[in-house]
Every structure is written in C-alpha cells, then in structure tokens.
Amino acid sequence: MRWFGFGFNAFGQIYGQDKLLEGECFENEQEVKVSSPTELTAQEDRSDCRLKTDCQIRASWSRRASLYLNGDSCVCLSGFVSNESCGSPVKESRGCKDAIISESYLILAFSDRLESWDLQKKETSPSWSMEIKTDPEISGTPLNLPLVPGGYIATKTPLYRSLSPHLRAKSLALSSEHAILLSASGTVYTWGLGSHGQLGHGGLTPEEEPRAVEALWGMPMSCVATGGWHSVCISDGGDLYVWGWNESGQLGLPSRGLRKAMQQQSSQQQEESPCTSTAEEGETHEEVFISIQAFPALLDITPSCEVSTVSCGCRHTAAVTTTGDLYTWGWGDYGQLGHQTLISSDEPQRVELFKEQQMRVVDVVCGAWNTFASVVKEEVAGP
Amino acid sequence: MSKDVSLMDTLWTKISAVLPKDEEQFPLPFGDIVESSVVEMLRRSRRQLYSDTTSASRMLTAKIILDFSWEKLNTGTWRHVDKEWRRVYSYGCLFKVAALCRGDPSAEDVLEALRTCDMGLLMGAAIMEDLLQVIVRILQGDVRKSTKEEDSEHPEVKRIKMECPHVPVIREEVAIPRVKRPSLESFNTNYLLPLKPLILEGTIEHWPALNQHPWSIEYLRSVAGCRTVPVEVGSRYTDEGWSQTLLTVNEFIDRYILNKDGVKGSGYLAQHQLFDQIPELKADIRPPDYCCLGEGDEEDITVNAWFGPGGTVSPLHQDPQQNFLAQVVGSKYIRLYSPEDTDKLYPHQSQLLHNTSQVDVENPDTERFPEFAKAPYLECVLQPGDVLFIPVQHWHYVRSLELSFSVSFWWS
Fold this sequence. Notes:
A: mainly beta; four-stranded antiparallel sheet; B: alpha+beta
C-alpha cells in the first residue's frame, strides 16, 4: 500500500524533509501548500523501517507519524522534529501497538502500558504513563486510541478520562472542544462544547456527559470523525451524516462565507470598473446558506455511492467510497483538498489524480491542514 | 503622479521607524501554551522582516501564524481564550501589515493593512506597547492624505434610511423623572441606593462630542471612516436572521445609514468598545462623575458605542451592572421595567438568552404573554445631552427614532 499526502507542508511533513535544516520550514508557496497528491517516501537509508511494510499514518499540525506495526513495530516522525530523529524510528516506540499524535505530545500504547512523550522537549522518560489493566471485565474493550480500557486519552491534561462501561465504546474521535463516541450497538454519543452545533442535539449548549444523538436513533453507525468544529459519521448502509460549523463549507452544505469570499476575489480580479453591487443582490434569495447545522444532515456525496471511511481536518472533510474514490470538501487554502488548486469548496469533489492513475483509495487520515490517502493499484477488470 | 509615489515611499519609512531596529531588539516572549512549532513560525516572520526575501514569503508566513491563532481564538468560549493566543494573532497582524506596506504599496494594500491592524486590535491583545495602535494612526494619516482631494467635492446626502412615524408621546404618570445636574449626594441617596431610574440633564454639555467636535456623519467619517468595526445585521438579536459582520465605518454609513446600495435589512454598530479602538473618539467623551459613587476604578468602566439609523431595536433585557446611557446624536424611545416584575416579563429559558424577555414591547403577543400588560413601567424619549441612569438589573427596551449615537457606561 502506498500513501499520498497533500495540503500543509511547511515543516516538510509530507515531503522534502531532507531539504530542511533542523527547525527550518519551507518559505515558498509551492512547497508549503501541496495541492496535488504527492507520494510519501520512507527514508529507508536513514531508518530500518521496512519500506514494504504496511504503515498507518497519524498527523498533527506540524508533524506526521508513520506507524509500522508488523513484526518489529515502531513509529517514525516527520515534520517539525529534530534532525537526528527525522526518518529514524522513535526509539522509545519500539514494540508499540498503537500511537496518536497531537501538537505537543506523542501517545504510545504498548500491551501493558501507555506513555506520553513530550515532543517539545528532549527527555529520556515519558512525561506521563499509565498501566493498562488486563481486567477481564473490560478486556473486551479493544485498544483503539484514543480509547483505552476503561476510558480514553484526552487532548489536554488530565490525559486519562474514564468512560462509563455501559456506553460500550467502540471508537472515539476528539477535537479540542468536543468528542464523538461510537458504541458497539452503533449509537453515537457527543459531549463537550456545542456553540457551533457540533454536538448535533439541535442547540448550541454544551454537554458535560456523553449524550446520545437522538436524530440518529435507530440507524446504526459504523464510523465517526471530528474536525475542529464539525462532526461526521457513516451509517452501516454507507450514508454520510454531517453537522457543526460550515464556515468553510466543511459540511458540504452551501456556505455563505465561501460564496462571498469567492465573489470578492473575482471582483478584485476584474480590471474594469465599476463593480456594481448587483453581485451581492444577484445571489438569489432562494438559496439557503447554512453556517451552523445543529442537527445531523444527510450529505449526498455522489449518487449511488456508499462511503466506507471518513476523516476530518480542522476545517475540511475527506471521504472514501466503496468504489475506491476519494472525495474532499471544506477549507482548501493550503491545498488540503487535493484538487490542484487552493480554493475552498462547499461541494464534495472527487480527487481526480487517483482516478486518472487507476489507483484505488482504501483509507484516508487527515492532519489539521492536510490529508493523507492510502491507495492500492486498481485491479483491471477482465474482459 | 510623482506626488503619489513620494507619499507611498515615506509610508514604509514611517512604519519601519516605529519597529525595532533589528532582530535582536524584537522581543518574542511566549508562555508554554504556545507550541514550539508556532514559535518557530513567529521567529521566521521576524527574520524575514529584517532580511531580503520576497513579499510572497513574508505574507505566507504571516498567513500561517494568523490561520493557526484564528483557530485558537475560535476554540472554547471567548472569555477562556488564553491571552497568549490573542497576542500571537496580533503578531500575525503586525507581520502581515509590515509585508503589505513594504516598498511601494498600492492604495488597496494600505486599506488592507488598515483592516489588518483593526483585526489585531479587535481580536488580538496589545503587543509591543500597543504597536498596532501606533501603526494604525500612521496608516490613517496616509489614507487621509491620498483621499483629501476626492472627498471635498461630494456633499453628504443626509438621507435617513427608515421613516419613523411612530414617535411615542410620553405620559406624565409613567415618565422617568428628570433632574438637572443633581449633586452626587442627592443622586446617591434618591436614585443609586434605592435603584431608581433617572434622566440626568445638563451633565455632558462639556463633552467635546457636543461642543468642539460635534459628532456628525462627516466627523465620524473623517476620524474613523476607514476603520473596521463589528456591525449587527438583522432587526434584533433575538431574530433568526441576526448576524454580525465586519465593515469599515464608511461602508456601515453608506449601507445602513444612507442606504446607498439599497440593501434590505438593518445594521447597528452596537455594544462595541469603539473608544478603545479609536482614541480620537475617546477624547470626545468623559465618564460621568457619578461613576465615582461605585466601587470600581475608572479602568473598570466598560464604555460602549451605539451608532445606527432610526429604527434599531434592542429587545427588552437586563444587564448585571449599573448603566449611564448618554445620548449624543438623535433620540431614542426607552422603556424600563423593574426587576421586581420579572415574573411578568417572560424571560427566555435558555442559558444564552435568560437575560432577555420574549416579549416584543411595542407589539406584545397578549395571548402568549398575558401578564405583560400588567407590568408597571417607566418610559422616556432620550434627547441629545440627556444621560439615563438604568439601575442594575433593570429591564430596558430601546428603539432609535432617528439617526442616533449613544454612549453607555457600565459600572459597579
């Protein structure tokens, strides 16, 4: 499997790390904003991570973690990292089972413990660690970071938070403001701040405890994801539901802010005078713009296609269909939509490059301002 | 032509004169909450400021800093946003402004720089001894110079957008009492301590806003025309279509006061600390002497501007502090209800709006809100020169009858 990345690359977290000196970042637009999917290469001459091993990707704002889990498992970091560790496996990660990365720390899960390593300081011991109890009562909970037996790892301290076992948590997605949990029965729970409608209960008020999203009652969900201020989930039948803030079109619903910005851009480019104000009046009053969607809404990405997995950056969303296509929408200023432009979009669009090169997208993982997609070669249908 | 070029050349000279001389003298102190990757970006911007690089590179680094800190500013509640992130945002604005004004900036670049300074002043926190405020003054001077010739030819058309036929007649029995220049003692004894509303007359006659610089549309344009301010759009904040937007004062005046482009809907420059943003206007007003009867210092007084056309409405609501509402331009109809009668005023249940009544005061739904008609009230038409004392937690409803500019002082 091969991984491609696009979007924010100022720290070389997608490509070009070898060109940068320690702590440096790219300055010119082409390198900072990667708008076309670019293949990730493992720097095998500087590491002993097997190139052919399947790897998983985790990404924060300034870094990317490649997680190699077969055999001699380890994590390799790229982006804003010290020169020595760039490309080489994080030695403290040997033998880990899973990892998540935030802007300030790397959480490693081992079979008997969890460790948090501060990415900003060079230390020889983890800044926090916790034993994983193999309690028969909760051993059924699979390790699925940020879910851990009995609870989860939060985005800020205190790191470990407990979760009621009756929730039967199967997977969990977190942003800095809110959380969305998928239970074994396919029920979706949300909690945290809700001022942008991201909890999906129809209002803007916060929830201290997990609360079931009633609008999705009776429809088992199979996948959940969070952006900075929005939430998405996929039903068992492959339908995509979205809710939360739509200021950059990240919900795939008409966004007024986006249309206005596009109008301003195009009117600035017109050399002739005078730009009459009809441009604004022209936006017909029939079109309904959504800036906050407080209840889940069904998003039709493309007719007759099922969604298999979805991931969100801060202000954009990326979804993979069962037919192996990748669709993206939302904020695109850094090329994170992968359409070879820097334009944001409130309409899901297919990333054509994969189609053109006959690649089948199988997974997608988003960092804050970028997107990583794993592909396999499309099997050519026989005659 | 050459005159224009020489004006623009000196802009960068003036701006670099207020910046630190070199990188070493440019402080970038941040607490632990700002991640080292972000500090690296800030250091990069600082380096680019003093080195030879492209304008595009400088703008890009500034954009990264602004985009990242913007996300922090929008995370959690505004009150809890760490001040460090607001400082980072201000630094982003500073670096962007420096990149825009370098060399030979166009008129659009200068306006964009002004707008950027204002964004830093509105959303950021003071950095480098309020450097953005210093730079905004330089930029304003530059804009004034280059637009001087254009302005003088267009006399201001004073069209008021909304007709306001309904000027209420105030009945004697429910009129808010008026006293001319009450003594501190008598105000304290008869009104502040018992929490009784009062209109104080003759207490702001000395304000420059009513004397040397009488506030008018022309004056506001000249002092603050190109400055960006938050504007409330939509008839009242309890309405579904209500929103906030950012406009320059000129745009606000053109669109919502003079209605030049025929846009429907009302706009109100409301509840904004305009006087922190524009010190020239602050110099035109004075906090009422009576505020000294409270517990706080002068710094603790929150001063807000309320500027809009006729017809703007603030729905019936209450505030957690004492209020002096000074009327400078135009008139407003105001009705007050005592907090003792809150049970007849049907406040919203939600946490967000629990200080706001559901009732439309001048057109109440008597079926949904039957008790409202029984609630006693006081009312007035507030005129220029009047100052209304609204005691803490007193419910108040305000409708402007014509172009209006008021200044409110919240104190404890």
